[in-house]
Design a protein that fits this description.
By secondary structure, the protein is of the alpha+beta class. It is 31% helix and 17% strand. It folds into 5 domains: 1-35 and 745-900, Isoleucyl-tRNA Synthetase, Domain 1; 163-270 and 523-603, no CATH class; 299-517, Valyl/Leucyl/Isoleucyl-tRNA synthetase, editing domain (Isoleucyl-tRNA Synthetase, domain 2); 696-734, no CATH class; 901-963, Ubiquitin-like (UB roll) (Roll), CATH 3.10.20.590.
Amino acid sequence: MSETTTAAEVAAPHRYTAALAADIEARWQDFWEEKGTYEAPNPKGDLAGDAELVARPKKFIMDMFPYPSGAGLHVGHPLGFIATDVYARHQRMTGHNVLHTLGFDAFGLPAEQYAVQTGTHPRVSTEANIVNMRRQLRRLGLGHDQRRSVETIDPAYYKWTQWIFLQIFNSWYDPEADAARPIDTLVAQFEAGTRQTPDGRSWSELSDVERANVLGEYRLAYASDAPVNWCPGLGTVLANEEVTADGRSERGNYPVFKAKLRQWNMRITAYADRLLRDLDALDWPDAIKLQQRNWIGRSEGARVDFPVGDEKITVFTTRQDTLFGATYMVLAPEHPLIAGAEDGDGTGSLVPDAWPEGTHEVWTGGHATPAEAVAAYRKQAASKSDVERQAEAKDKTGVFTGVHATNPVSGEQVPVFIADYVLMGYGTGAIMAVPAHDTRDFAFARAFELPMRCVVEPTDGRDTDPATWDDAFASYDAKIVNSAGSDISLDGLGVTEAKAKITEWLAARGIGEGTVNYRLRDWLFSRQRYWGEPFPIVYDEAGVAHALPESMLPLELPEVEDYSPRTFDADDADTQPETPLSRNEDWVNVTLDLGDGPKRYRRETNTMPNWAGSCWYELRYLDPTNADKLVDPDVEQYWMGPREGQPHGGVDLYVGGAEHAVLHLLYARFWSKVLYDLGHVSSAEPFHKLYNQGMIQAYVYRDSRGIAVPAAEVEEHEGGVFYYEGGKVSRLLGKMGKSLKNAVTPDEICAEYGADTLRLYEMAMGPLDVSRPWDTRAVVGQYRLLQRLWRNVVDEATGEVTVVDTEPDDATLRALHKAIDGVAQDMANLRFNTAIAKVTELNNHLTKAGGPVSRTVAEQLVLLIAPLAPHIAEELWRRLGHTGSVVHADFPVADPAYVVDETVTCVVQIKGKVKARLEVAPSISDADLEAAALAEPAVVAALNGAGIRKVIVRAPKLVNIVPA
């Protein structure tokens, strides 16, 4: 006996140990890969296969795209992957053709930052990370169809990302069709004269540049000069969703400023109503639907024009009924009527040269001229995030522009301010301020000593003089007052009636109209980065954008010497992006023949955002080897087409984090709808059912300096006091990660217990949608379950199978079929923690019963645990004499006769107190149960001859007797 061999191992050489688990798991992983066990056949094409499988009901199960991090996986990462694998395995065993695979969302900032630091090409580091991640995932026994796995950095993949971009670029949204249509149909309307050009000239009279500009106002993908979130510290522009609440970059925590740059955008706003409407048919968590609805932010109101000299300021308001109470106006600092006034470029025509006579001192901000005041305030506002600008608690700031506008209903002259609490990204970037009935306007009016007028009669006891108020009065359930003009009066009307009347009045005079507004903004689609998909766009000498033909796709990333965008002082807002691609002159400036002879062009030097590749990856999983089409229509229809209960089609189950509610999910829905409108797919929605898994958390230990210390080296003393290297440390539950020094890798757990134990533990920790703390010490519980399971089938001393070919007793049959019934329901509803509890209960029953286990019971127990612990199940299934893989075996079906208890316990109460318990048949009638309860001796004694006023029967479990 060697020094490392224990007596127990000598006595039980075939015991289920980590070493045996490692051997079993490696062998079966090799077997599955060699045999293509998890390959799901398509109805046609390169991946067509087993006709019998294709004829089964299909099930398309997906995880959200993982990013191949250089740090590899920790045990928190695979929670969702294991869950979808368990569900997919159960679906295979219940007669489905299951598509389940996993790819990698591999473009993005981390690899680029690593390249900047080390000089390693992003592709080299990313591919190495993918290799490591594939190894870790394989070790977990995940049943993926590896033929379908994709990587967004593969040119064969991003060829189609570029192709989809061109479909969007070459499309417009036709309001009459309520759908995207090819841009050629719009050109045909202009050519035929059925649609007028903006200036009324015929299409043939317009130059190429003018035509391009007209079409750019319609295209679903378009370039424009627009306010953007410019981050000098990162050297790139960020989407709104990538900016934190305190106005800093999500990555790197750098300041973010408002700037105007030419960028690519996606006209997602055209789909706002459909994105809202189609949510109703999706099987998504209510919280995610609510987040999308709030992000889209649909509101009904009116657009109203306020004249300002030769100009007009258009506002959007949901309270047009309060127009008579508008005593001033506020523009966003970026509003085109005042933007640029400080540099004399002519765009700030609204701002005069001097303050008008009688200007209040507090309005000027202490500046000598309106232009100086506006310039200084705009610079101040540029350093704040949208969230910070709109914070309710902050002091209201602003400056007078030096001009007055005319209230269109009263004719009153009202001063026009700029203030940062108004955003250019919502409505028109201008508001009519009704301070008596809006909290923010009220605070602003008090700060700048502006008048207020009550036009909605207070219902809370206050009088109608706002000067006596502490805050605004806002109500949709009150009467309109003080709102009469020369030819219209709203006095005495309710809010709804007043809104309808004033909207009709405005429309009749051409100074307003009823309209719908959205919080949703068009999707900023440019990044000043290297490691992303190149745009398949070139510009001619006149600056007109041209789409590359499909024959020139993929447009591959060129080599560059410097991977980093030019970064600047993080606080320097007066800077401009410089992209890495712009430095490769040979790639940027090219001669191409786009159909009208060779010409010189300049390539787009921005790249697509990291969201691009994940907007459509579910489609490439379907048909990954198709070089001629995005996806074969018949294949897409088979896996994702509409069907009963899924009117918009989509993936059957999509599992991932709730943090993607308004980014990835909204963008993917938009791309799906465009592709649907253009006839490329039959599914108008990408994901029919969405499930958000919780998070595996871990304790973070910090020393007296607040620095995280290695969790594995912390010792726990009595009373819950923790020490690291002799010093006391604090403990707080938080995220798991390398930076917090609390990460546990799956490799560690697999080495100590085996992959099946890890799978079981992660699924048993609690409900899948709830976050839970990791506890390495608790893993052993699931390890022991597998050891007991092994012992119930295999002799630990000889390795021989111990099951017997005899029928189980009645108690065992009942335990078995109750477990089958419960586990089947739990599996179908992703309740894996309770499924494991039922398997454990059955296994414990067999252990306690003693003696050899019936083959019938052993085989069905192995099938029950197979989705959860596939390696040990496959090994035991083979040892039990089966030649086929357990992966495709039929899941057990419960016998109803054994699921129902022979008897149930009925509680008999008198005046709410338990007096007896009866064992009765589950099918007993109310009348029979009442008679049995009243005849029970303990009940007769308790009543002691008293009369009975009422008997309440809830068969078969309760009888409640109310004495007279």
